[in-house]
Amino acid sequence: MMHTYSPVKTDLSRFSVGDYRVGSPTWKVALWYLVNYTFFYSAVPWPYALKSVLLRWFGARIGKGLVIKPKTRVKNPWRLTIGDHCWLGEAVWIDNLADVTIGHHVTLSQGALLLTGNHDYTRSDFPYRLGEIVLEDGVWVGAQSVVCPGVTCHSHAILTVGSVATRNLNAWGIYAGNPAVFVRERLMKS
């Protein structure tokens, strides 16, 4: 293996947020952090309906029947759309520096991470690189799995436990590993 070293090195004192903009007034962001840690990231099992109302107050578009377990975090609710009858398991983290769109009947199991931001390691100022995430209807993101920036999980795809989706998942496919690869087709019974 040949090593080629660049004369330019990472300089975090020059960090840049790149194209990222919070998109809300500072007071709203500060208030959201308080609400997020009080009602969402808390171990207290607050009613699902209350959590849905709070998300809507902060700009999220939420369908009916949302189940949202304790210890869940949402970075920016104004960048979140969730369809009908979705389940968010304990300790789910929606780190949405960019938009996250979740279809109907989607499950995010315990500890799943939707990660819309990364860093551009090719630049010395290490700016954010952002990409929207789309989870279409019927998707299941397994426990402790990660969906990376810019990924679309197409209809009824499954990302198995502990897997990392770095590329789009095809409809009705089951994916496993890091990076996740196609394992087999998802078949369902009525």
In short:
This protein has helices at residues 26-40, 48-57, and strands at 61-62, 67-68, 73-74, 80-82, 87-88, 93-95, 100-102, 107-108, 113-115, 117-119, 128-130, 133-135, 140-141, 146-147, 152-153, 158-159, 164-165, 173-177, 180-185. The protein is an alpha/beta fold. It has one domain (25-185): Hexapeptide repeat proteins (UDP N-Acetylglucosamine Acyltransferase, domain 1), CATH 2.160.10.
List the helices and strands and how they pair.
Blueprint: H1 26-40, H2 48-57, E1 61-62, E2 67-68, E3 73-74, E4 80-82, E5 87-88, E6 93-95, E7 100-102, E8 107-108, E9 113-115, E10 117-119, E11 128-130, E12 133-135, E13 140-141, E14 146-147, E15 152-153, E16 158-159, E17 164-165, E18 173-177, E19 180-185
Parallel strand pairs: 1-4, 2-5, 3-6, 4-7, 5-8, 6-9, 7-12, 8-13, 9-14, 12-15, 13-16, 14-17, 16-18
Antiparallel strand pairs: 10-11, 18-19
Please provide the count of β strands.
19
Radius of gyration, rounded? 18 Å
CATH class: Mainly Beta
Low-confidence stretches: none
Q: Could you give the distance between the termini?
A: 53 Å
Second CATH tier, the architecture: 3 Solenoid
Give helix % range: 10-25%
The multimeric state of the shown protein is: single chain
Q: What is the SS-derived class?
A: alpha/beta
Strand order of the largest sheet: 2-5-8-13-16-18-19
Q: CATH homologous superfamily?
A: Hexapeptide repeat proteins
Mean of the pLDDT scores? Answer: 94
Number of helical elements: 2
By CATH, the topology is UDP N-Acetylglucosamine Acyltransferase, domain 1
Order of helices and strands: HHEEEEEEEEEEEEEEEEEEE
What's the number of domains?
A: 1
Described by the principal axes of the CA atoms, the overall outline is: globular
Largest beta-sheet details: 7 strands, mixed
Strand content: 25-35%
